[in-house]
Structure prediction request, 333 residues.
Amino acid sequence: MSVILAIESSCDETSVAICNNGKITANVIANQTIHQNYGGVIPELASRVHQQNIVPVIQQALSDAKVSKKELNAVAFTQGPGLLGSLLVGVSFAKSFALALDLPLISVNHMHAHILAHFIDDPKPSFPFICLTVSGGHTQIVVVRSHFDMEIVGETLDDAAGEAFDKTAKILNLPYPGGPLIDKYAALGNPLAYKFGEPQIKDLNYSFSGFKTSILYFIRNQEKENPNFISENLNDICASVQHSIVYILLNKLKKAAKQYGIKDIAIAGGVSANSGLRAGLTAMAEELNWKVFIPAFQYCTDNAGMIAIAGYYKYLNKDFVQQDVAPLSRMEF
Ligand code: KG4
Ligand code: ZN
Prediction:
């Protein structure tokens, strides 16, 4: 028997989940809307809002899962990577909570957890599989050989795919985070209206910083001729940008699958909520005979459910940490 409470606070979502014998029975996520006015996450504000949110979110999760504090067997938390001030709130809370209740502590790597979110619902992937992890801070192609034996075989050399979405959105005067909005407008536009080049990067790596700059120059040039270019063509611009990002992501994923001879393919992280990526992956799977794994929406963007499931597998291995554990803004994979 194991009932694990998990806390995620690496960026701007305060989330608490409960995992009861490998099943997620609560996954409460408090989003922070305060950052919308600033075009990106302001670390100081994020940390302050985590402090306001953490106690009510814990209470809500316990109530949703219908468990009392006394029934808990362990406390799992995101140790990193992420914003230090944000992580500090979750880590400090987890430590004091575990100390007060005399429970073991489990440290979880946020990027491992995005991948392990695939072990929440059925069908679960079998090992080895390849996971494309695409979030606001990371873009990684990972060969997953067991729950904790993972190897990054390709990654971005600069911006993450989520940043490519968010920074494009900023150019288009859309609020943060722009990824979901680009997705929404893209559904109404023509993906082939405008063409943006594919960066020529070696091996299985990515680069999105030049891509973002090319969009910026494209928009500036168009606006010289028509100051209303963005508002008159928003759907087509979003559809074309999304189409290009998805093409870049899937092209390297296809190369990785071929190189490693693996046909079980998963996507994870916030950008895996993107409808263009989900559709593109499904089409590629049909063409190449892949078995694909796409997480439920609530487990794509940051959530404690994924921390709880990662914590569960560590609990089975009795992989605990002590009270001297500290948050890590950069954490070894
Ligand atoms: O995994 P996540 O919630 O946080 C990080 O660990 O970074 O990912 C957040 C990123 C943001 O860049 C956001 O714009 C992007 O995921 N995102 C999307 C969509 N939903 C979230 N990007 C494109 N389309 C979406 N539907
Ligand atoms: Zn994340």
Remarks:
- The CA atoms of residues 126 and 264 lie 8 Å apart.
- Residues 110, 114, 135, 269-270, 302 surround zinc ion (ligand 2) (CB under 6 Å).
- The first strand starts at residue 3 and ends at 8.
- DSSP finds nine helices and ten strands in the chain.
